[in-house]
Amino acid sequence: MSATLAGRSAIVTGGGRGIGAAIAAELTRRGARVTVFARSRPELDAVVAAGAAAQGVAGDVSREEDVARLVAAHEGALGPCAVLVNGAGILERARADEMAPAAWRRVLEVNLTGAFLASRAVLPGMRRRRPGRIVNVASISGTLGTPLASAYNASKWGLLGFTRSLAEELRGDGVQVLSVSPSGVDTRMLAQTPFPAVVTAEEVARVVAWAAGEAPAAMTGANLEVYG
Fold first, then answer.
1. What is the CA radius of gyration of the chain?
2. Which of 58, 61, 104, 174 has a beta carbon 3.0–4.6 Å from 130's, enabling a disulfide?
3. Least confident piece of the model among 72-81, 124-133, 183-192
4. Residues 177, 215: contact at Cβ < 8 Å?
5. Does residue 152 have an active-site annotation?
6. 3-class SS at 44?
7. Pseudo-torsion of CA 207, 173, 1, 10, nearest 10°?
8. b/e per residue, 172-209, with b = 16+ CB within 10 A?
């Protein structure tokens, strides 16, 4: 158990499966009290039943009212949020000239605006109580371009910029912000692509948990690469 996370409460968006579920399990193993958030109630129930989280809240991270309900449910059951992991993400694969504008917007709304909304919702409390940690799950796709993934890559490039800007805004406020960028992880999302898995969800989760607890404050704004 990590002394830096023991007894602290954490929210993990995108926590119903894949990397998010692995992060929830690792934070719980290190002593945190975790709420997982995702659209699928059955997936959330399975994570809680496995002992990887204390509770699950169903909703859409791109909807402001759902995020407000998430934070209220978390604080009501587990206390003030000390750690937020923005892990919710979706992928739409298509050529840019063939992608429907609605699909483009949906990727940006979930992968980037969702992180903004969740961070915005927990920040007032984190600043009052100190310390707080926000960890954004980015991607190797935030550092390069790949065909058929323009919306996804744009969202992850944006998430890195959001991480660094937010870290600068919060200097001196007792809240650190970091991002973690994995490469191919053996998940349902990766199976939609031609890329191989080179790291496991559990390996990514250990890096996220370290960023959420043990990473020194001087690292705020950093992007931790997990490229295998």
1. 16
2. 174
3. 183-192
4. no
5. yes
6. helix
7. -80
8. eeebbbbbbbbbbbebebbeeeeeeebbbbebbbbbbb
What confidence tier does 1 reach under pLDDT thresholds 50, 70, 90? low
- Token pair, residue 19, equals 């990397």
Rounded to whole angstroms, how far apart are CA atoms 151 and 65? 24
Closest among 127, 121, 26 to 73, alpha carbons compared: 121
* Per-residue pLDDT tens over the stretch 26-51: 999 999 999 999 999 999 999 999 99
Any idea which residue has 């890096």 for tokens? 207
Token pair for residue 189?
A: 């999302």
Tokens, residue 84: 């937020």
Q: In this structure, are strands 9-13 and 132-137 parallel, antiparallel, or unpaired? A: unpaired
The catalytic residue among 37, 104, 116, 152 is 152
100/94 Cα distance (integer angstroms): 9
Q: Which helix (H) or strand (E) holds 124?
A: helix 114-129
pTM: 0.95
Contact 163, 205 (CB under 8 A): no
Read off the tokens for 201. 């969800």
* Ranges 33-42, 149-158, 168-177, 191-200: which has the least confidence: 191-200
In percent, the amount of the chain with pLDDT more than 70 equals 98
Identify which of 202, 211, 86, 93 has the alpha carbon closest to the alpha carbon of residue 141.
Answer: 93
In angstroms, rounded to a whole number, what is the distance separating the alpha carbons of residues 208 and 12? 11
